[in-house]
Amino acid sequence: MGKLTTLVIKEVKELIRDPKILIGVILMPVIIFPVMGSAISVSQKSVMQAMITASFAVYSKDEGEAATALLNYIYINNTVILIERDSLEEAIVAFQDTNATTLLFIPEGYSQNVSQGLRGRLKIYANLKSMTIAETGTTDALGNVMGVYGYLLSLSKINNLLEAAGVVADPLTVRTPLSISYSTIIKGNVLEVAPSSIFSIIMTQSIMLPVMVMVMLMFAIQMAATSIAIEKEQKTLETLMTLPVGRMTILSGKLAGSIVVAIAGAIAYMIGFGYYMTSAFSFAPEMTSMSTGDVGIGLEPIGTILLGVNIFVTLVSGLALAISLATFADSVRSAQSLTGFLTVPVILPAIILMFSDLQMLPQTVQWLLLVIPYTHSIIASKAAFLGNYGIVFRSIGYISVFTIVVLYIAARIFSTERIITARFTSFSLKDLLKRH
Amino acid sequence: MNLMESAIEAKDLVKNFGNIVALNGASFQVRDREIFGLIGPNGAGKTTALRIISTLLKPTSGTVRVFDVDVVRTPEKVREHISYLPEEAGAYQNLSGYEYLRFMAGFYAREGNGVNEMVEEGERISGLGDRLEDRVKGYSKGMNRRLLLGRALMMRPKLAVLDEPTSGLDVLHAFHVRQTIKEFADRQGVTILLSSHNMLEVEYLCHRVALIDEGSVIAIGTPEALKDRFSSENLEQAFMEATRLG
């Protein structure tokens, strides 16, 4: 067994057996996301259930024909609590004692208005008892029922008018004379779907990819920093540095071990997140009805390879950066607080690019973001899906150069005595500059 | 004595950490197959000297040759022949004692059998028996030290550098460690350089000692010779006398 393999196996064992890492990086995502998903799903389903089974209260001051027809319509499909009081004020008080969240008030003169071709006025009172989303949903339910009734009423009125005028026409086309259909153009292909129905694909590209890159990077950075800091904390680093093994081999072993665990963490995260997405949005199947393949923006083999290379160089760059920083820490805690600074350049581009395109941003912000290597990996991930491989190559190039520079610095730090003597507590930038 | 008999040649070693002078022109020579002790109070520069010899630190000035190999110019060559046990060393907490020995043996053994032999030797030296199957996390300080001593000696290095091998240990563990070092050195013909502030331990273990104070070597010789020279009953008194005169 080679020295590098020996080191990698040890790194992986040490990291995986650390309960903090095992639970935080691998078990938590697998457990916490499905639990979150089910929780959202359960609450969403209860909202839907509440909307379906909602009961309405009705108080009518009109006893005309149109009001009776309206009441009959509501009675057919819903549970209705009829409130009989002398005044509206009393009815409102009585309504609050019922379990209905909405009250439909039919004022006097409704039927007369409707029969004379005027607007029939109705009023809905909503009683928000618990101020929850479910409650506002049931409030909408009565409005929707009235909307449908109004539509049917208009059709019947149009029909009557057409007959009276002796015109032969479909009341439906008179009611909605225009028919609009949507097409979407992606990568030059015209697709017979509305842009809103490829929402899930846009979600994948704009949110899932940056989140995935960001999460993997954060894992990797944490792993690498911890693996160096553990050596210092457990006082094993000095021994390791006197072994007959090259410093670059030690560094590579740490990088490789951290990558293995980070990838395991990323897979656990993706499984958990995937489960979360499917369970949390299971009540809305239309959101996930189309795949990237259906609309022709799936990854070609070359795109997959480039995307893989891009993510790999991104990972290595993050690791190298973390290792360089962690050499200045003397405990796991100080390493984590030091690498905490790295979350800013990692999260910033991910969040900004989640909601906007680089070109939409002000010029200075664009330049600022382009200096950060992780901006490139997010842009490249999107570009790979759209087949813009030039951008992916540019990203791989930039991140590789950045990584080589950082790795060179890490190797330099590793081959000097700074790795033994450097302490976060006694670290000052002035000293560092002076020594160079 | 010719050069070939010399395991370590340290000449005019100076090491500064910023304004702090850790070593101030220390020179000494360790012969092949002897147990050599560096003794002195805390902060005398013992650990710094051992770290330079073990290739962890570079001297500000001066030279060290280990088996005629320069530690600054070709540290990787020196590392092949030495084994260093730092004072405050630990083992990987999430590995078992066996896994730790096996991991370390992987860097020295040429083929598979070599690893097994080394691990067996490490097991013998540590004397931990079945406890080697447990994770290091649960080890006491004494067990930890014995595991690390097993690690340091199992590959039969030409030179073992042991920094305060018994510091902080109870009588039983300290006794085991001292016995092991003495027996192992006799049996395997290994050169041992150790540091200690326990003068009695050094008197028992070492063929020769260097008294070190404020970064300089103030006297070198066998324990007997040093006691004679400073007309003292033991090394402790000899050290006090030497610092007073120096």
Helicity level of chain A, as a percent range? Answer: 55-70%
Would you identify the regions of chain A where 5 or more consecutive residues have pLDDT less than 50? 284-289, 424-428
DSSP summary: helix tally of chain B: 9
Q: How many structural domains are formed by the residues of chain A?
A: 2
Sketch the major β-sheet of chain B. Answer: 6 strands, mixed
Q: What does the main sheet of chain A amount to?
A: 4 strands, mixed
Helical content of chain B stands at: 25-40%
Per CATH, the architecture of the domain at 3-90 and 162-245 in chain B is 3-Layer(aba) Sandwich
**SS content category of chain B:** alpha/beta
Strand order across the largest sheet of chain A: 2-1-3-4
Top-tier CATH class of the domain at 3-90 and 162-245 in chain B: Alpha Beta
Taken as a percent bin, the fraction of beta residues of chain A is 5-15%
- The gross shape of chain A turns out to be elongated
Mean pLDDT of chain B: 91
Oligomeric state of the chains? heterodimer
**Total strand segments of chain B:** 10
Question: Can you offer a commentary on this structure?
Answer:
By secondary structure, chain A is mainly α. In chain A, 69% of the residues lie in helices and 6% in strands. Chain A contains 18 helices and 6 strands. A 4-stranded mixed β-sheet of chain A has the order 2-1-3-4, sandwiched between helices. Chain A has a two-stranded antiparallel ribbon with strand order 5-6. Chain A starts with a helix and ends with a helix. Chain B has a domain at 3-90 and 162-245: Rossmann fold. Chain B is 38% helix and 26% strand. In chain B, the strands form 2 sheets. A 6-stranded mixed β-sheet of chain B has the order 6-7-8-3-9-10, sandwiched between helices. Chain B has a 4-stranded antiparallel β-sheet with strand order 2-1-4-5. Chain B is globular and about 50 Å long. The mean pLDDT of chain B is 91. At the A-B interface, helix 1 and helix 9 of A face strand 6 and helix 3 of B.
